[in-house]
Amino acid sequence: MSIATTNLIEQQAIEAKKAAKILNLLSTEEKNEAILHVASMLKKNANLILKANKLDLIKGEKANFTSALIDRLTLTHERINDFADGLCQVAELEDPTGIVKSSWTLENGLKVDTVTVPLGVIGMIYEARPNVTVDATGLALKSGNAVILKGGSSALESNKMIVQIMHNALEETRIPKEAVQFISSTNREVTKQLFTMKEHIDVLIPRGGASLISAVVNNATVPVLETGVGNCHIYIDANADINKALPIFINAKTDRPAVCNAAETLIVHEEWFNVHHKQLFEMLKEQGIDVFGDEAVVNSFPMASLATEKDWAEEYLGLGIAIKTVKSVDEAIDHIDQYGTKHSEAVITDNAETAKYFMSQVDAAAIYHNASTRFTDGGALGFGAEIGISTQKLHARGPMGLPALTTVKYLMSGTGQIRE
Amino acid sequence: MSIATTNLIEQQAIEAKKAAKILNLLSTEEKNEAILHVASMLKKNANLILKANKLDLIKGEKANFTSALIDRLTLTHERINDFADGLCQVAELEDPTGIVKSSWTLENGLKVDTVTVPLGVIGMIYEARPNVTVDATGLALKSGNAVILKGGSSALESNKMIVQIMHNALEETRIPKEAVQFISSTNREVTKQLFTMKEHIDVLIPRGGASLISAVVNNATVPVLETGVGNCHIYIDANADINKALPIFINAKTDRPAVCNAAETLIVHEEWFNVHHKQLFEMLKEQGIDVFGDEAVVNSFPMASLATEKDWAEEYLGLGIAIKTVKSVDEAIDHIDQYGTKHSEAVITDNAETAKYFMSQVDAAAIYHNASTRFTDGGALGFGAEIGISTQKLHARGPMGLPALTTVKYLMSGTGQIRE
Q: Oxidoreductase: is it a keyword of this entry (chains A, B) (predicted)?
């Protein structure tokens, strides 16, 4: 990497930090007006975005991108309207900053307020979807944060155009355009520079596949909000009602197989398995699901392949499922402990004690009793926009909306108080 | 490092994780009873602790430890009573787990509860003070967490004896003794093993000097709660009342110079400086404070040395102070941005606008207007015991009590809900 590029990135980070301080002084109304203006300019300039997107799509086709990747990359008038409307929704959400969380006065008269404030500068590292450029910008600005955007190189032209339009729009508002920084270098070493810029960046949020996320988590000294990898399990207990178990499993597996809250492993108590495996396998066949199972599964379902270690850890993100039989709920919990990603886990049982035990012992952001894992989602839970789904335990867990982009300050007002 | 040691540490971490699951099933009463029993056994066995402490002190004297270090290392009957009483106070605090933070039902009938739960396994890495062994154990157990203790090698014998007494005590309670793991190896490579045990450890909390903390922050892939380095500034504005400014500064500098909320740099507006520097310097002289100042300071106070870059970043932790003069509040804020550690910062001014601006633009856990920085402390703020003072923005900021040792789970209870 050239020294010039490093300096450029650092310069962008410094500009972002300065802009964050200005953002900190704006009112909710000023932020909302700016966000709405950005939304309207994105709609107005949709044709420019589509033209730039076309360039990315041509490049992607030449590079033989999968149809799934092409789909994620593709923008249409409708998709542009959707992300612009998303900005309007963000403008309507409550401002998460400036909220007094607690307030008290010490005996000596010192007044203590804890107040929510922006994190400062957010580094967003993401992959193909160009809508993230807009979604992340809206959530960052609304919560008073500057944002440094590092999108995937496959969407470079689309992202550049979107950012240019957003910059032009911001110039007509009170938000400095420097609050939105876009890194256009496609050099991976440049992304790595962001990992260690503790001086200028307050948090990194990686959004994308497991390898992107682990690269950030394992190399960053800047604090990270880990999102989205979901190796989710459905555990069908001995006492599970088949009329709940099968529909829940099929919904969790097939409703949207490519998303992080989809089921990837089915764990079945052997007592239930012995009674119901024929119905289970019929349904798997009907749905065209590829099965990777343990010996018990392979022995009773000839279309299944024997699962390897890799299958237990795999996010198929498609119509594959790993199936394991167990002798007890503890064996199921141990398996989830070993292979789960702390995202969403479900137990299907009519035994309330088993459900309670599973929910206490499994370590994950969301734990379901007799329901599909597909509800771990800001939209489904009624939060409005989300910046990602946290699979870590510190700071924020599960779907992260605007409050996850804030921290608190202790503001102490005195009249000369000293500690005796 | 031998393979045997690595395996031992990993084994300890695995045992801690298993014990954390058992802890998760205990009632508040069961945890409290255990903590109180540990407290009483520590008091009963004080002589054994003092005998072990004597061994550490002899070693320390041979190694020519400073008197400050010897003081931190030294236990007395009174200090043992203090930390045992601290455990009793922790038993009395509200259980931070099992608290329903929010609860709602989706239109389809799926019930959603967010409930506080323990983090799991806490890795505590600390230096000389043996009381941390007890304080951290109490806070961890009360919040349902297992703890892995890695104390400083200078306190090895004291810590080993304290842990042995705590283990013996726990054997008579419902808390498995494996919930408290002590690493007795003094090999630094062993500590490093803890940095990357993401599978088994949920959070690392370093407590100690800046070099310990930065070693953890820069090398850990396990999430870290950063604590305690405090390069705190007092900014005396043009409009500061000298009768507030001088007492506040002296209190912040001299009340307990070795602690993290003590003042390390004084920033003075030149208008105030021009009028009041004689009184300021008289007081510094009187208090025996060593001054490292910029040119304006050195020119008017012959006993001052010229400050170097190092002084602006230095935590003297003793009777030294760096003094800088500025032309504006913005210059003060820029200086704090560059050298501050986001701990505690104060502005002394009678101008409410300046105070508000300073409090909004300075990025720190605690910001004071017309009061000493010494109040950033769980005890002073009325929180009860604290595990450390967070200088990071994610998860917890400022003094961290029991709630900082918890996270939330989304518990979803359904009757077969699927996403349509």
A: yes
CA-to-CA distance for A297 and B279, rounded, in angstroms?
85
CATH H-level superfamily of A3-227+393-413: Aldehyde Dehydrogenase; Chain A, domain 1 (3.40.605.10)
pLDDT single digits (tens) A212-240: 888 998 899 899 998 878 999 999 999 99
Asked if A20 reaches chain B (Cβ–Cβ under 8 Å), the answer is: no
In whole angstroms, give the CA distance from residue A204 to residue A25: 23
Query: What's the gap in Å between the CA of B290 and the closest CA on chain A?
Result: 21
Q: B218 touching A, CB under 8 A?
A: yes
Name residues of chain B where pLDDT drops below 50.
1
Direct distance between the N- and C-terminal alpha carbons of chain A, in angstroms, rounded to an integer: 55
Q: What is the pLDDT of residues A45-67, one digit of tens each?
A: 999 999 999 999 999 999 999 88
Closest by Cβ to A398, choosing from B370, B398, B410: B410
| CATH number at B232-380 | 3.40.309.10
B364 contacts in chain A (CB < 8 Å): 409
Nearest Cα residue in chain B from A411: B367
Phi, psi angle pair for A97, to nearest 5°: -105, 160
- Give B354's Cβ-side CA count (13 Å radius): 21
* ipTM of predicted assembly, 2 dp: 0.91
CA–CA separation, A405 vs A390, rounded Å? Answer: 12
Positions of CATH 3.40.605.10 in chain A: 3-227+393-413
Amino acid at A274: N
Q: Do B374 and A419 touch (CB under 8 A)?
A: yes
Question: Using a CB-CB distance cutoff of 8 angstroms, which residues of chain B are in contact with residue A417?
Answer: 248, 370-372, 375
Counting one residue from A and one from B, how many pairs have CB atoms under 8 Å apart? Answer: 187
- Enumerate the CATH 3.40.309.10 domain ranges in chain A, comma separated: 232-380
Q: What is the C-alpha radius of gyration for chain A, rounded to an integer number of angstroms?
A: 24
Q: Strand A121-126 relative to strand A146-150: parallel, antiparallel, unpaired?
A: parallel
